[in-house]
Amino acid sequence: MKIMIIRHGDPDYSIDSLTEKGWREAELLSQRLIKEDIDDFYCSPLGRAKDTASSTLKKLGKEAEILEWLHEFRGTVISPFTGKARVSWDLPPSIWCSDDRYYDIKHWSEPELMASGKSSTVFKETADGVDALLERYGWRREGMAYRGGEDVTIALVCHFALGITVMSYLLGISPVVAQNNFFLAPTSVTTLVSETDASGVSHFRAIGVGDISHLYIQGEPMSESGLHPSFEK
Prior knowledge:
Layout: E1 2-7, E2 11-12, E3 17-18, H1 20-33, E4 40-43, H2 47-60, E5 65-66, E6 76-78, E7 85-87, H3 93-96, H4 112-115, H5 119-135, E8 140-142, E9 145-147, E10 153-158, H6 160-171, H7 175-181, E11 189-196, E12 201-211, H8 213-216
Helix pairs in contact: 1-2, 5-6
């Protein structure tokens, strides 16, 4: 199985759509995706994701199924600086790099910061959404691996933190590590493929993370939306 996780184009958050650059990115993305033999498309309910998918879907004469759990990752924590709720990704490194539990897939939600919000709940909702979708194709979760399943290619058009969270779940990486150490540029493509052993046990391997070669070959610069050279509290 191949899973392509696609971030939306350069966003105009004020209207939940794309900037002029974002529309250019979406068109260049479509020129790549129409060659990928994608069986099924799934999309976030938010406008910027649906707009990004529209160019590709129009060319292919297909529709994407909207999945509510592909909405941007809505986990929050209470900031130790302001006492107010904030997103639980893009955290200042001084908050999480000194606590080994954040690096562990089984213990990342235990520190006081993560326990102060709903990140673990949203992570579980995302994980459940992933497993329910894969079960449609016969892939059944067994512990940290999968068994069975069809040889299909699917595309998930979604968001930075949500896409990273899907990747972290399928690869067994702490979402804190994934959300803060990886960057998925607008219209980037992250590709995971299944590998199966003789006993029928499968896992997913990343063969490309945040790839934007479709932009580079056309001279379109990368959008830095989501990068944080310095951090706000």
